[in-house]
Design a protein that fits this description.
Distance between the termini: 103 Å
Low-confidence stretches: 79-83, 423-436
Oligomer: single chain
Helix content: over 70%
Largest sheet: none
Shape: elongated
Number of strands: 0
Structural class: mainly alpha
Number of helices: 13
Mean pLDDT: 85
Length: 450
């Protein structure tokens, strides 16, 4: 199979494609892209399940750590006000984890943008291919309609004018047959007419799904950013209620991070399998959806010297027929116009129709060459297998950093929270305020002494 110009499977594609795959019974599964097969679907689901396993292990580790911290620490002697040893280290480890999480958020924004750019490039290539196919159909039907109109009107009128000269009528009828032959040959060039698969619809569906995917990741990234920033604010202000709320939110974001990690890992593995050999799958899928001949699909998807143009014979016959019509009209103009002046008007109209037909024919020759559609195919693969896959890998790195940072923060926050001074809730009270508990206590003691 040939590869589109400018596209070569990257090192990441080769590396991910070599990873072993197993189904639910732990039997090896081929790494060939086959999303319709149950074994391959199970292999991708197991990749997602690995992320679920990681989430479960991280939650168990956090729970064990917190239980040990709450239940196994020695009781403080009464009246002890000295900070626990290692408290500063705990706080700074939590801050460092949150800063790593913030760095991961930046990586996530970049990966989300790269994925969106790749899908946009794929959609743009599909739209351009759809425009090419629609232009071919439009040129074919316009040309056939013009030729049919010329046969029904100008050539019919010309035959009526030249009734007295049998040889001239025969020449006009020869031009009629050639025009009908050209129309018949051109009708076979609109190979995409009536095909149920629409590149425009595929592009619109991709854009619709990508819009919601992009928005979901932006919301996830912003949510984690807010959690990190407000947690840092709570540590700086030593606000217990803010730290408690952010601890709960950190659990939620931790679950979302592991879930997104599973989806990104499965998407990366599936994309690597597809991008390692995309031609085979695309050819089979397109032939199944469109019902087109394999010769046509091979010509446009592969576009190499080994595959000939399936429309070459039709184009050659049409070109010869147009040349014959042109020569016959020139002969009629020389022979008929001097004797039948009324023949000049239909002949001029036929010449104009022939010129437009030849112009449309040259455009069809250029559009039906494999270069244009194959270029769109290569652009679509580069957008999907380079930008989109790279974006998924960056999102995978973001999820990994996010999960690690949040797990570390969840282990550190309770210990940091325990180091907050007990007067945290009364930091803003005035010492002279009679409602201050300390001031009230001193007032009671003064009254009893009196």
């Amino acid at each position: 199979m040939g590869e589109p110009p400018g596209y070569r499977p990257s090192a990441w594609v080769h590396l991910l494609h070599q990873l072993p795959r197993v189904d639910f019974q732990l039997r090896p599964v081929s790494s060939g892209f086959a999303p319709q097969e149950q074994e391959y679907q199970q292999a991708l689901l197991l990749v997602v399940a690995l992320a679920g396993l990681g989430l479960g292990l991280s939650l168990i580790f956090i729970a064990v750590y917190l239980i040990r911290f709450c239940c196994c620490q020695p009781p403080e002697p009464p009246g002890a006000k000295s900070p626990q040893p290692g408290g500063g280290c705990v706080t700074w480890s939590c801050v460092a984890a949150l800063l790593v999480g913030c760095a991961g958020i930046g990586i996530g924004f970049y990966g989300n943008s790269e994925t969106s750019d790749g899908v946009a490039q794929l959609s743009s290539a599909l739209l351009h291919a759809n425009h090419t196919l629609n232009t071919v159909d439009h040129l074919v039907f316009e040309t056939v309609e013009r030729l049919g109109e010329a046969v029904r009107t100008e050539l019919t009128n010309l035959e009526e004018v030249l009734t007295q000269r049998t040889e001239l009528v025969a020449a006009a009828r020869g031009a009629r047959r050639q025009a009908e032959a050209v129309a018949q040959q051109l009708q076979g060039l609109a190979f995409w007419h009536g095909v149920p698969l629409s590149p425009l619809q595929v592009a619109e569906d991709l854009s619709f799904v990508e819009e919601y995917r992009w928005l979901a990741y932006v919301l996830l990234l912003l949510l984690e950013l807010l959690v990190c920033l407000f947690t840092l604010l709570g540590l700086a202000k030593q606000s217990k209620w803010l730290v408690i709320v952010m601890t709960v939110m950190s659990f939620v974001v931790l679950v979302l991070s592991w879930g997104s990690m599973g989806l990104e890992a499965a998407a990366s593995v599936g994309l690597s399998d597809f991008c390692s050999n995309p031609d085979t799958y695309i050819l089979n899928l397109t032939q199944e959806e469109t019902g087109l001949d394999s010769d046509i699909l091979n010509y446009y998807f592969l576009c190499n010297q080994a595959v000939s143009n399936p429309f070459q014979q039709r184009l050659t016959l049409s070109q010869r027929a147009l040349a014959n019509i042109h020569s016959q009209l020139q002969g009629l103009e020389r022979e008929a116009v001097p004797q039948f002046p009324s023949a000049q008007k239909p002949l001029l109209s036929l010449e104009e129709t022939l010129n437009v037909t030849e112009g449309n024919f040259h455009q069809l020759v250029a559009l039906l060459h494999c270069h244009s559609l194959h270029k769109d195919y290569g652009a679509a693969l580069r957008g999907l297998c380079e930008d989109a896959l790279e974006g998924q890998l960056f999102l995978l790195l973001f999820s990994l950093l996010s999960a690690g940072a949040l797990a570390t923060a969840l282990c550190s926050l309770p210990r940091a929270w325990a180091l907050f001074p007990p007067s945290d809730d009364y930091d803003d009270t005035d010492d002279d305020d009679p409602f201050n508990p300390q001031e009230s206590k001193r007032f009671v003691q003064w009254q009893s002494s009196i």
